[in-house]
Design goal:
The complex is a heterodimer of chains A (about 110) and B (about 110). Chain A is mainly beta and about 110 residues long. Chain A contains no helices and 11 strands. Chain B has about 110 residues and is mainly β. Chain B is about 0% helix and about 50% strand. The termini of chain B are far apart. The chains are: A mainly beta (about 110), B mainly beta (about 110). The interface between A and B is medium-sized, with 27 and 23 residues.
Chain lengths: ~110, ~110
Amino acid sequence: TAGITQAPTSQILAAGRSMTLRCTQDMRHNAMYWYRQDLGLGLRLIHYSNTAGTTGKGEVPDGYSVSRANTDDFPLTLASAVPSQTSVYFCASSDQSNTGELFFGEGSRLTVL
Amino acid sequence: GESVGLHLPTLSVQEGDNSIINCAYSNSASDYFIWYKQESGKGPQFIIDIRSNMDKRQGQRVTVLLNKTVKHLSLQIAATQPGDSAVYFCAEKKSNFGNEKLTFGTGTRLTIIP
Protein backbone atom coordinates (compact mmCIF):
# COMPACT_ATOMS: atom_id res chain seq x y z
CA THR A 1 0.00 0.00 0.00
CA ALA A 2 1.44 3.36 -1.06
CA GLY A 3 -0.22 5.37 1.72
CA ILE A 4 0.57 9.04 1.17
CA THR A 5 2.33 10.06 -2.04
CA GLN A 6 3.84 13.53 -2.34
CA ALA A 7 5.30 15.19 -5.43
CA PRO A 8 7.71 16.61 -6.21
CA THR A 9 10.32 15.22 -3.81
CA SER A 10 12.30 18.42 -4.10
CA GLN A 11 12.07 21.64 -6.05
CA ILE A 12 13.98 24.86 -6.45
CA LEU A 13 11.73 27.77 -7.21
CA ALA A 14 12.38 31.41 -8.07
CA ALA A 15 10.74 33.95 -5.78
CA GLY A 16 7.48 35.22 -7.19
CA ARG A 17 6.69 32.01 -9.06
CA SER A 18 3.76 29.79 -8.23
CA MET A 19 4.02 26.16 -7.23
CA THR A 20 1.64 23.35 -6.38
CA LEU A 21 2.72 20.51 -4.13
CA ARG A 22 0.71 17.41 -4.80
CA CYS A 23 -0.54 14.95 -2.21
CA THR A 24 -2.52 11.78 -2.84
CA GLN A 25 -3.61 9.10 -0.40
CA ASP A 26 -5.00 5.65 -1.12
CA MET A 27 -6.29 4.87 2.37
CA ARG A 28 -9.66 6.61 1.94
CA HIS A 29 -8.98 8.71 5.00
CA ASN A 30 -11.39 11.55 5.65
CA ALA A 31 -8.94 14.04 7.09
CA MET A 32 -5.82 15.46 5.44
CA TYR A 33 -3.23 17.99 6.55
CA TRP A 34 -0.30 20.04 5.30
CA TYR A 35 2.60 20.80 7.63
CA ARG A 36 5.86 22.60 7.15
CA GLN A 37 8.93 21.53 9.06
CA ASP A 38 11.68 23.97 9.89
CA LEU A 39 14.72 23.33 12.06
CA GLY A 40 14.03 24.27 15.66
CA LEU A 41 10.35 24.92 15.02
CA GLY A 42 9.05 21.42 14.61
CA LEU A 43 5.94 20.72 12.55
CA ARG A 44 3.53 23.58 12.00
CA LEU A 45 0.10 23.12 10.45
CA ILE A 46 -0.59 25.15 7.32
CA HIS A 47 -4.05 23.97 6.24
CA TYR A 48 -6.26 21.01 6.89
CA SER A 49 -9.37 19.30 5.61
CA ASN A 50 -11.57 17.12 7.80
CA THR A 51 -13.62 15.87 4.86
CA ALA A 52 -13.82 16.29 1.11
CA GLY A 53 -15.21 19.68 0.18
CA THR A 54 -14.09 21.44 3.36
CA THR A 55 -10.81 23.08 4.36
CA GLY A 56 -9.54 25.06 7.31
CA LYS A 57 -6.61 27.28 8.24
CA GLY A 58 -3.87 26.04 10.50
CA GLU A 59 -1.19 27.89 12.42
CA VAL A 60 0.69 29.32 9.42
CA PRO A 61 -1.75 29.61 6.47
CA ASP A 62 -0.57 32.91 4.94
CA GLY A 63 0.80 32.56 1.41
CA TYR A 64 -0.72 29.09 0.94
CA SER A 65 -4.00 27.76 -0.37
CA VAL A 66 -5.50 24.28 -0.57
CA SER A 67 -8.43 22.52 -2.14
CA ARG A 68 -10.14 19.21 -1.42
CA ALA A 69 -12.20 18.29 -4.45
CA ASN A 70 -12.21 14.59 -3.56
CA THR A 71 -11.17 12.26 -0.74
CA ASP A 72 -7.81 11.27 -2.18
CA ASP A 73 -6.17 14.53 -3.25
CA PHE A 74 -5.11 17.55 -1.24
CA PRO A 75 -2.85 19.90 -3.24
CA LEU A 76 -1.04 22.82 -1.60
CA THR A 77 -0.46 25.92 -3.72
CA LEU A 78 1.96 28.76 -3.24
CA ALA A 79 0.63 31.58 -5.40
CA SER A 80 3.75 33.75 -5.27
CA ALA A 81 6.63 32.07 -3.46
CA VAL A 82 8.90 33.96 -1.06
CA PRO A 83 12.23 32.81 0.43
CA SER A 84 10.64 32.33 3.88
CA GLN A 85 8.60 29.51 2.37
CA THR A 86 11.78 27.49 1.96
CA SER A 87 11.01 24.41 4.02
CA VAL A 88 10.18 20.74 3.99
CA TYR A 89 6.47 20.18 3.48
CA PHE A 90 4.67 17.13 4.77
CA CYS A 91 1.22 15.96 3.82
CA ALA A 92 -0.62 13.71 6.27
CA SER A 93 -3.95 11.97 6.63
CA SER A 94 -6.01 10.29 9.33
CA ASP A 95 -9.05 8.03 9.18
CA GLN A 96 -10.78 9.97 11.93
CA SER A 97 -10.35 13.66 12.45
CA ASN A 98 -9.50 13.45 16.15
CA THR A 99 -7.45 10.32 16.81
CA GLY A 100 -4.06 12.00 16.80
CA GLU A 101 -2.65 9.21 14.64
CA LEU A 102 -1.52 10.80 11.43
CA PHE A 103 0.01 9.04 8.44
CA PHE A 104 2.68 11.19 6.81
CA GLY A 105 4.13 11.30 3.34
CA GLU A 106 7.86 11.38 2.69
CA GLY A 107 7.95 15.15 2.32
CA SER A 108 8.64 17.71 -0.38
CA ARG A 109 11.73 19.87 0.03
CA LEU A 110 11.14 23.33 -1.42
CA THR A 111 13.83 25.97 -1.84
CA VAL A 112 12.74 29.47 -2.85
CA LEU A 113 15.53 31.68 -4.17
CA GLY B 1 0.18 30.21 25.25
CA GLU B 2 0.42 26.52 24.56
CA SER B 3 3.80 24.96 24.20
CA VAL B 4 5.19 21.49 23.97
CA GLY B 5 8.89 21.36 24.72
CA LEU B 6 11.64 18.85 25.09
CA HIS B 7 14.29 18.88 27.80
CA LEU B 8 17.18 17.80 25.55
CA PRO B 9 17.63 18.37 21.84
CA THR B 10 20.08 15.45 21.40
CA LEU B 11 20.63 12.13 23.10
CA SER B 12 23.26 9.45 22.44
CA VAL B 13 22.81 5.94 23.76
CA GLN B 14 24.91 2.81 23.45
CA GLU B 15 23.29 0.06 21.42
CA GLY B 16 21.49 -2.35 23.68
CA ASP B 17 20.99 0.18 26.44
CA ASN B 18 17.66 1.73 27.33
CA SER B 19 16.89 5.32 26.36
CA ILE B 20 14.52 7.88 27.84
CA ILE B 21 13.27 10.87 25.89
CA ASN B 22 11.50 13.56 27.86
CA CYS B 23 8.85 16.11 26.97
CA ALA B 24 7.27 18.91 29.00
CA TYR B 25 3.90 20.37 28.16
CA SER B 26 2.31 23.53 29.48
CA ASN B 27 -1.34 23.21 28.47
CA SER B 28 -3.03 21.55 31.43
CA ALA B 29 -6.18 21.15 29.32
CA SER B 30 -4.43 18.64 27.05
CA ASP B 31 -5.49 15.10 27.77
CA TYR B 32 -4.13 13.17 24.82
CA PHE B 33 -0.43 12.72 24.08
CA ILE B 34 1.36 11.08 21.20
CA TRP B 35 4.91 10.16 20.28
CA TYR B 36 6.18 10.21 16.71
CA LYS B 37 9.46 8.96 15.24
CA GLN B 38 11.06 10.57 12.22
CA GLU B 39 13.92 8.86 10.45
CA SER B 40 16.26 10.86 8.26
CA GLY B 41 14.64 11.84 4.98
CA LYS B 42 11.26 10.41 5.92
CA GLY B 43 7.99 11.61 7.32
CA PRO B 44 7.05 11.22 11.00
CA GLN B 45 5.63 7.88 12.04
CA PHE B 46 3.18 7.29 14.89
CA ILE B 47 4.69 5.25 17.73
CA ILE B 48 2.35 5.26 20.70
CA ASP B 49 -0.24 7.40 22.42
CA ILE B 50 -1.59 7.83 25.93
CA ARG B 51 -4.63 9.50 27.41
CA SER B 52 -4.63 11.45 30.63
CA ASN B 53 -6.61 8.80 32.50
CA MET B 54 -3.52 6.59 32.28
CA ASP B 55 -0.02 7.13 33.66
CA LYS B 56 1.70 4.37 31.71
CA ARG B 57 1.26 2.56 28.45
CA GLN B 58 3.47 -0.08 26.90
CA GLY B 59 4.07 -1.07 23.32
CA GLN B 60 6.68 -3.18 21.65
CA ARG B 61 9.98 -2.12 23.32
CA VAL B 62 8.48 1.30 24.08
CA THR B 63 6.79 2.64 27.18
CA VAL B 64 5.22 6.04 27.57
CA LEU B 65 4.91 7.57 31.02
CA LEU B 66 2.68 10.50 31.85
CA ASN B 67 3.03 12.60 34.98
CA LYS B 68 0.17 15.07 34.98
CA THR B 69 1.25 16.65 38.26
CA VAL B 70 4.40 18.09 36.69
CA LYS B 71 3.12 18.04 33.10
CA HIS B 72 5.79 15.66 31.94
CA LEU B 73 5.78 12.96 29.31
CA SER B 74 8.52 10.47 28.58
CA LEU B 75 9.23 7.78 26.01
CA GLN B 76 11.33 4.86 27.09
CA ILE B 77 12.89 2.62 24.45
CA ALA B 78 14.24 -0.68 25.72
CA ALA B 79 17.30 -2.47 24.29
CA THR B 80 17.96 0.17 21.68
CA GLN B 81 18.88 -0.83 18.15
CA PRO B 82 20.54 1.11 15.32
CA GLY B 83 17.14 1.52 13.71
CA ASP B 84 16.00 3.54 16.71
CA SER B 85 18.25 6.42 15.62
CA ALA B 86 15.80 9.16 14.65
CA VAL B 87 14.18 12.37 15.82
CA TYR B 88 11.36 11.82 18.27
CA PHE B 89 8.49 14.27 18.66
CA CYS B 90 5.84 14.48 21.31
CA ALA B 91 2.47 15.99 20.47
CA GLU B 92 -0.56 16.93 22.53
CA LYS B 93 -4.16 18.05 22.29
CA LYS B 94 -7.51 17.68 23.97
CA SER B 95 -8.96 14.30 23.09
CA ASN B 96 -12.26 15.65 21.84
CA PHE B 97 -10.60 18.20 19.56
CA GLY B 98 -9.75 17.55 15.96
CA ASN B 99 -6.25 16.70 14.83
CA GLU B 100 -5.89 20.25 13.54
CA LYS B 101 -5.39 21.16 17.20
CA LEU B 102 -2.46 18.76 17.55
CA THR B 103 0.64 20.64 18.75
CA PHE B 104 4.05 19.15 18.08
CA GLY B 105 7.22 19.65 20.08
CA THR B 106 10.49 20.59 18.42
CA GLY B 107 11.98 17.09 18.64
CA THR B 108 14.87 15.19 20.24
CA ARG B 109 17.49 13.53 18.09
CA LEU B 110 18.37 10.07 19.38
CA THR B 111 21.60 8.54 18.16
CA ILE B 112 22.37 4.89 18.86
CA ILE B 113 26.10 4.23 19.16
CA PRO B 114 27.08 0.78 17.83
